[in-house]
Amino acid sequence: MARDNQPQPENDAARRAEPAGQSQPQGARAGAQVADPLEELESLRGKLSESQDKLLRTQAELENYRKRSRREMEDERRFAEVHLVRDLLPIVDNISRAIEAAENKADAQKLLEGLKMMLQQFEQVFALHHCKLITAEVVGEPFDPNRHEAVMQQPSDEHDEHTVLGVTRPGLELHDRIVRPAQVIVSKKGARD
């Protein structure tokens, strides 16, 4: 309790008693704090400028990539058929030879053989490109409106109704999609007139 009874120095007196070099006036502390934020602000401005520059470069690179991709896609679309065209060129050569032979009054049998060979070449090229001609193999099949286009009906006692009797124009199937349906003659019930 003796400590409680001892007089405490007043705050102002205690502060006055401190040596002069140990305490900093508030103004001096404030000046030191102002210098650091200015340097920090300049540093942040530099970093912001660098970030904006990087952003602009990245945007330019992205735009260049988009343009290049667009050009490549357009080129690919324009030249997608180049393989088909190259595969068809030998057939065109053979057609030219057949025309030349016909003009020279060649044997009709040889001309017919040459034309059949060209048709086989076409079928091979189509098969190479995942295409299939819808031709005479459909004769005797039931009519399928997804694969066939009926251009005529013929009465038939030998076939069921809606059976393919003949092909007037071949169709074409690419993978599983019908590019052009085959034009066919379809049977109908009834005796021939």
Q: Looking at CATH, which topology of the domain at 131-193 would you report?
A: Nucleotide Exchange Factor Grpe, Chain A, domain 2
Q: What is the overall number of helices?
A: 5
CATH superfamily of the domain at 131-193: Head domain of nucleotide exchange factor GrpE
Content of β-strand:
15-25%
End-to-end separation in angstroms reads 141 Å
The H/E string reads HHHHHEEEEEE
Gross CATH architecture of the domain at 131-193 = Roll
CATH top-level class of the domain at 131-193? Mainly Beta
Q: Which class do the helix and strand fractions yield?
A: alpha+beta
Mean pLDDT: 79
Report the count of strand segments. 6
**Low-pLDDT residue spans:** none
Summarize the structure.
This protein is α+β, with helices and mostly antiparallel strands and 193 residues long. Helices cover 55% and strands 17% of the residues. It contains 5 helices and 6 strands; from the N terminus they run H-H-H-H-H-E-E-E-E-E-E.
Describe the structure.
The chain is of the alpha+beta class and 193 residues long. It has a domain at 131-193: Head domain of nucleotide exchange factor GrpE (Nucleotide Exchange Factor Grpe, Chain A, domain 2). It has helices at 2-5, 11-17, 26-78, 82-103, 108-128, and strands at 131-134, 148-155, 164-169, 171-174, 177-180, 182-188. The strands form two sheets. Strands 1-4-5 form a three-stranded antiparallel beta sheet. The longest helix is centred in the N-terminal third of the chain and has 53 residues, at 26-78. It is elongated, with a radius of gyration of 46 Å. It starts with a helix and ends in a 5-residue tail after the last strand.
